[in-house]
Amino acid sequence: MIIWLNGAFGSGKTTSAFELKRRLPNSFVYDPENIGYFIRKNTPKELHKSDFQDHEQWRSFNYSMLKYISNTYDGVIIVPMTVTNPQYYKEIIQKLTDDGIPLKHYILYANKETLLKRLNKRLEQGETWTKSQIDRCIHAFHTDITEEKIITDNISVDLVVEEIAKRSNITLIPDDRTSLRKWLDRTMTLIKHIR
User: Fold this and answer.
1) 101, 126, 137, 145: which could form a disulfide with 96 (CB 3.0–4.6 Å)?
2) What global pTM score does this model have?
3) What is the four-CA torsion angle of 108, 111, 114, 119, rounded to 10 degrees?
4) CA-CA-CA-CA torsion for 38, 42, 44, 45, nearest 10 degrees?
5) In three state form, how does the secondary structure of the chain look?
């Protein structure tokens, strides 16, 4: 099964993905952004697009990799990735579903104020690329890609993870970490994924 966590930047996709992995034996976090960085490092700058999702290769390679892993890995694949373009959604997520691959797609949704607060906590002060994308994301999740929202404004990461598990009909192992250990784990996840 693939669990795709969509949502605006700051909605909690990466944190929730790694928390889900910690509580779900035989699971793997797949990061589609890595293909974007590969494309940028291995093509001339003149060919770079402002958003690497606009490269057809990014979409086709992620689709192919997820299909391959899903067909050969006996576990849950967790994909934290923002996709707001309906055509790109069709080329990856819908295509995987059409191929018969079990896929649950959730939008981790938060309002603009919440998203800005979360991004500021990441030390993203002032205007940044991720902040400039908030309105576009919110619009897309209201008009183009609208199914299965999990509203995250006023709930903890633990509750988000439990809601994903409930909707996906999967059983989580108990989380016996201390509050300090959870904070350290989540902080390290954020640090590792600052790009």
Assistant:
1) 101
2) 0.91
3) 70
4) 30
5) CEEEEECCCCCCHHHHHHHHHHHCCCEEECCCHHHHHHHHHCCCHHHCCCCHHHCHHHHHHHHHHHHHHHHHCCCEEEEECCCCCHHHHHHHHHHHHHCCCCEEEEEEECCHHHHHHHHHHCCCCCCCHHHHCHHHHHHHHHHCCCCCEEECCCCCHHHHHHHHHHHHCCCCCCCCCCHHHHHHHHHHHHHHCCC
Residue 43 in tokens: 């093509």
pLDDT for 188 equals 83
As for how many domains the chain has, the answer is 1
Q: Which domain holds residue 58?
A: 2-192
CATH of the domain at 146: 3.40.50.300
Question: Crossing angle, helix 13-23 and helix 157-168, to 10 degrees?
Answer: 70
Amino acid, res. 192: K
- Provide Rg for the chain, Cα atoms: 16
Model confidence pLDDT, tens digit, residues 54-68? 999 999 999 999 999
